[in-house]
Each structure stands twice: as structure tokens, then as C-alpha cells.
Write a structure and sequence with these properties.
Blueprint: E1 5-11, E2 14-20, E3 25-29, E4 44-45, H1 50-63, H2 80-90, E5 98-99, H3 100-106, H4 113-121, E6 134-135, H5 148-174
Parallel strand pairs: 1-4, 5-6
Antiparallel strand pairs: 1-2, 2-3
């Protein structure tokens, strides 16, 4: 059995329990997470664990708007189907959403929408494997282990970061070309 270590990350959406093995991050659990949702020993508390330090740094960067793609080594346990779904979650771009049906299509199992939903519900690394980006086919927010209010806050956070980056790029682009003035105006 692989030894696990855990640490707590105080995020803007509540305390998150990070669980790691020597191979990677195994879980990121919500403060009031149902213990039956992700069955994993937490092990010993070890904030100095290199995987936990890396996860905390990247979570901090995500919540401060500096990080849009996680690059944390992962150590996921689950069925092959669950891992297929969780890998698809990792590919959803920052600030975008997908429906359960779109994920089922992506993984080559178009009739497995319900199974995709079940695997999504067992996702052990919320936020990182972005299950908050999965919505109902009509655009409705649907089940989320952290709660629908947190899901909305995460989606809103990502949209705000994207808006800020677009505004920054637009301002940067406008600085590339000098505005006409008396000294550089074109004459006809």
C-alpha cells in the first residue's frame, strides 16, 4: 500500500484537504466532503511533502488568477472508465464548459452520459480535473461535490480572469501603434 500524506489549503471557496502519495496528488477534497465519495486514506499530516507544496503553490496561483492550467503530478485510483472521464476533465480549457454528453462523445462512449456523470461525481481532484466545468446539456449547473454555489464561484472566477487577460491584451495591443499626433500624423 502506498503511504499517503495530507495537508490543508485554505482557499477562497473553503478549506481543501490535499492528499498525496510519493507519486503525485491523489485527492483534493472539500471541507464537508462525503467520506464515501472518495475512499482514500489521508495518512499523516505533512505540509512539507513536495507534492503537497506544489499543489498548494499552484492552487494559490489559480485563485490569484495567475494560473490557468495545472501541472501537478497525479496519482489517481479508480476504474479505467473513471480515469478516462477524469482525463477528459483535465482537457477542458480554463473558462470553458462541457456537457456530460460532450464528454461522453469525446471519450468515444456517446451513450454513457449517466456513467460520465457518476465518474464526474467521484472525481478525487476537484478544481484540478475541472468537474466544475461540466454542466447539464441545457446549460444548467448540476451536481457538484463542493456545492452549486462553489461551482458558480469557480466558473465566475475563471470568467473574470479571462476578461482581465483580454483587457490587458487589448491595452497592450493599443500601445503597439502610436496614436496620431501633430508630429506623426499622416498627411494626404
Amino acid at each position: 500500500m502506498v503511504a499517503h500524506a495530507f495537508g490543508i489549503f485554505a482557499s477562497p471557496v473553503g478549506k481543501l484537504t490535499m492528499v498525496a502519495s510519493d507519486h503525485g496528488l491523489a485527492a483534493l477534497l472539500w471541507e464537508n466532503d462525503d467520506p464515501a465519495r472518495v475512499r482514500l486514506p489521508r495518512g499523516r499530516e505533512a505540509h512539507d511533502h513536495p507534492v503537497l507544496r506544489c499543489a498548494a503553490e499552484q492552487l494559490h496561483a489559480y485563485f490569484s488568477g495567475q494560473l490557468t492550467r495545472f501541472d501537478i503530478p497525479l496519482d489517481l485510483g479508480g476504474t479505467e472508465f473513471q480515469k478516462l472521464v477524469w482525463t477528459a476533465l483535465l482537457r477542458i480549457p480554463f473558462g470553458e464548459t462541457r456537457s456530460y454528453s460532450e464528454i461522453a462523445q469525446e471519450i468515444g462512449r456517446p451513450s454513457a452520459c449517466r456513467a460520465v456523470g457518476a465518474a464526474n461525481g467521484r472525481n478525487p481532484i476537484s478544481i484540478i480535473a475541472a468537474c466544475h466545468r461540466v454542466i447539464g446539456s441545457g446549460g444548467a449547473l448540476t451536481g457538484f461535490a463542493g456545492g452549486l454555489e462553489v461551482k458558480r464561484r469557480l466558473l465566475d472566477h475563471e470568467q473574470a480572469v479571462l476578461r482581465q487577460k483580454r483587457e490587458w491584451r487589448t491595452q497592450e495591443d493599443s500601445n503597439l501603434w502610436p496614436l496620431p499626433s501633430e508630429g506623426n500624423a499622416l498627411s494626404s
